[in-house]
Amino acid sequence: MKLENAIRALAGTMILVSLALSHYVHPNWIWLTVFVGANLLQSAFTGFCPAETILKKLGVGGSCCGKH
Predict the structure, then answer these.
(1) Distance from C-alpha of 18 to C-alpha of 33, rounded to nearest angstrom
(2) C-alpha distances out from residue 30 to 21, 51, 67, Å
(3) N or C: which end of the chain has fewer CB within 10 A?
(4) Distances from the Cα of 6 to the Cαs of 10, 17, 38, 62, in angstroms?
(5) Measured between alpha carbons, how far is 13 from 17 in angstroms, rounded to an integer?
(6) pLDDT tens for residues 20-62?
(7) Is the pLDDT of residue 65 over 50?
């Protein structure tokens, strides 16, 4: 999986999970959605994305024989 796709998948998953948790467990879980959204917004302007660093360390989007 490409790194950009993995970041989008992670962000989308975190948003959906936090919305479900805020509905079924406790309303304060909505703050996780706020955090993810704020992180996406700041990364659009600064180019820094903590999820990218973590996913790279986990080997997502690393060197692959199909990468040019």
Answers:
(1) 6
(2) 8, 19, 38
(3) C
(4) 6, 16, 18, 12
(5) 6
(6) 999 999 999 999 999 999 999 999 999 999 999 999 999 887 6
(7) no
3-state secondary structure the chain: CCHHHHHHHHHHHHHHHHHHHHHHCCHHHHHHHHHHHHHHHHHHHHCCCHHHHHHHHCCCCCCCCCCC
Burial of 37 (0-12, 13-18, 19+ CB in 10 A): middle
With beta carbons less than 8 A apart as the criterion, state whether 2 and 60 touch.
no
The residue type of 34 is V
Rounded alpha-carbon distances, angstroms, from residue 62 to 3, 18, 59, 65, 67: 8, 28, 5, 10, 9
